[in-house]
Specification:
Elements (H helix, E strand, L loop, with lengths): L4 H11 L1 H5 L3 E5 L4 E5 L14 H19 L7 E12 L7 E7 L3 H9 L5 E10 L4 E13 L2
Antiparallel strand pairs: 1-2, 2-4, 3-6, 4-5, 5-6
Length: 150
């Protein structure tokens, strides 16, 4: 399955209302990497004027979902991707727009091989949150699974 930035954005915005609510922008989406952007929006600021922690969590989780759907889109007829757990670390104050860059923590072929062997694979997705100057403001790991249908 080849997905361009616009179609992945449209698909996730239709399936996940928070993507629409936060006006997330899809900068790059491939099976190897997904980059999403949270625009600077005062209605989603925290008490110090930067993006709220919940908005940044949603940005990062959405980037992880975009890479998972792109990397495993050809498996959707037999398995549903689900987030199992997530851990986030806020490192520096984020101000202005924030981008989230997600990368798979295991080769997709290894995950699919486990699914084909009849197991329910789990795999991490690492996400770096950055402000416009490139400084990393947060890091998140989301562990996903492919739950077999039926």
């Amino acid at each position: 399955m080849t997905v361009d930035n616009a179609s992945m954005g449209d698909m996730l915005a239709a399936a996940v209302p928070m993507v629409r609510t936060l006006n997330l922008e899809f900068i790059e989406v491939s099976p190897e990497r997904a980059v999403l952007r949270l625009p600077d929006q005062p209605e989603y600021h925290n008490h110090v004027g930067g993006p709220h922690a919940g908005a940044m969590f949603t940005l990062a989780e959405s980037a992880s979902g975009a890479i998972v759907l792109t990397a495993f889109g050809d498996q959707l007829s037999r398995a549903v991707p689900l987030a199992v757990r997530a851990e986030i670390h806020y490192r520096k104050l984020a101000m202005g727009p924030v981008t989230a860059t997600a990368t798979l923590g295991r080769p997709a072929a290894d995950v699919v091989a486990e699914l084909e062997a009849g197991t329910r694979p789990e795999f991490p997705v690492s996400i770096a949150l950055r402000r416009e100057d490139g400084d990393v403001t947060g890091e998140m790991t989301v562990v996903w699974t492919l739950r077999p249908n039926g």
